[in-house]
Adenosine 5'-phosphosulfate reductase
Amino acid sequence: MTAVQEEPTTEELRELAEQAGRDLEDASAPEILRWAADTFGGRFCVTSSMEDAVVAHLASRARPGVDVVFLDTGYHFEETIGTRDAVEAVMDVNVITLTPRQTVAEQDAEYGPRLHDRDPDLCCKLRKVRPLEEGLRGYVAWATGLRREESPTRANTPVVGWDEKRRKVKVSPIARWTQDDVDAYVAEHGVLTNPLLTDGYASVGCAPCTRRVLEGEDARAGRWAGRGKTECGLHG
């Protein structure tokens, strides 16, 4: 498939995404990312929470110097920021750090302290969803590390799909991977991972809203525990 040269219409992008989702369902993660890199070029980026750098590493092989977008919410663990800095230092990627319009102190002044406890959906909207929407404006397609086995809400994640909310092509190259697949890739290629993953955390988000998981819990159980919330809104 040739690269998208002229600005495609929304309908053309949607059709492209839906067709690719069907065509690439059984393709390998490197094949899916090569398709994305060849099709969208510099208007394709990877988003990373710096839980690990698996998708960034895969994408750097398909498109050296690929943009890797990271959301610095102001609430991250030190280990997460350290992982971002290490990825930027050792991988062939261009890390772009997005920040919310308000600092934590400014948000506290307007909404009151610990908004994440009182209204986690609003906090995620202000510190994650809105900054990402603004940061993705220059791209036609973006890649995520979503995997189907992570939680019931992600069970139907397509390897390539249409992000209706942002009107962009959404690529999830490791959607079919299991945790064993992730672990094997990390071990084979020496991929950077967040140190918290070896300290009882199965999914790493903002420090105030993330806890270690208990035996038998799914990977997302440590996020917003006790709040009936499993997603920040970036993928729903």
Notes: DSSP finds eight helices and six strands in the chain. The two ends are 29 Å apart (CA to CA). The helical segments are 10-23, 29-40, 54-62, 78-90, 104-111, 115-118, 120-135, 179-189. The chain has a mean pLDDT of 92.
